[in-house]
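Table S2 (continued). Query chain:
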Amino acid sequence: MSVDDQSRRQFVKAAAAGMVTASAVTLSAVTAEAYQGNMENALGALRHALVLLRRATPDKGGHKATAVQLIEQAINEVQAGITFAAQHFGD
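Corresponding output:
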């Protein structure tokens, strides 16, 4: 194998490695864009709050029931926001 053949092969390997690295960085950026961390975290917190409220003793003058309804509404709104962003912005 000549020096030129060896150099060419090293170049091809390096170029291929660079393309793989560039693809991984691009994929990471797209994945990071697509994941809506704050919205997902808010959704998790709301779901946890709902679980805790449902565990609470009943009859708080109607306020517990209202809080459950409002949190359920908030969960639906956050989910709708996530869906909207995914459909319109690819997030």
